[in-house]
Inverse folding.
């Protein structure tokens, strides 16, 4: 997994990687998928057995699609709004939405983090914390299982986080050569 660009979503607050061969940054890709009914129908059909876990109470594929689309729209708006706000009020920034990937495991440098659409959501954004209220999105997924090691698409997100972290370590300040979000 090779990163070929970093896109600025909110200056000095929220950025997203773009992997070689991909058309869009991860942030754009994630929210495009999460609002695409066809993508979601296929995803939930392929993972329908996970919807029958006690956590999700056997929600139907159709209900899961509708719920995901609604949550995704609100989640994207909230991330961008909080990213802007955090530039002015440090306590209300992205650091209030993101938490360590592994609960209780804080890393002083380039922490692997996650953000949820809401407390009971299966939507996850994965990012590397560069600094307080400064995050670099490495990917995102629908997480229906207890751990990320239970599904292949979640294992890929772990690999993306590792690749992003290595990229930042190798390029340091050089990561701030940003491009236009939609390119």
């Amino acid at each position: 997994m090779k990163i070929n660009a970093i896109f600025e979503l909110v200056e000095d607050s929220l950025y997203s990687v773009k992997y070689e061969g991909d058309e869009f940054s991860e942030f754009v890709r994630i929210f495009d998928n999460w609002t695409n009914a066809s993508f979601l129908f296929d995803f939930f059909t392929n993972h329908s057995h996970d919807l029958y876990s006690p956590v999700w109470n056997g929600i139907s594929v159709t209900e899961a699609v509708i719920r995901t689309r609604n949550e995704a729209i609100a989640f994207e708006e909230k991330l961008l709004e909080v990213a802007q706000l955090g530039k002015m009020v440090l306590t209300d920034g992205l650091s209030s939405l993101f938490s360590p990937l592994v609960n209780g495991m804080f890393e002083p440098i380039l922490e692997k983090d996650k953000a949820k659409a809401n407390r009971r959501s299966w939507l996850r954004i994965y990012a590397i914390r560069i600094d307080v209220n400064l995050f670099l999105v490495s990917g995102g997924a629908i997480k229906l299982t207890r751990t990320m090691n239970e599904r292949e698409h979640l294992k890929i997100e772990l690999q993306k986080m590792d690749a992003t972290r290595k990229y930042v370590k190798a390029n340091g300040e050089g990561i701030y050569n940003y491009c236009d979000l939609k390119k």
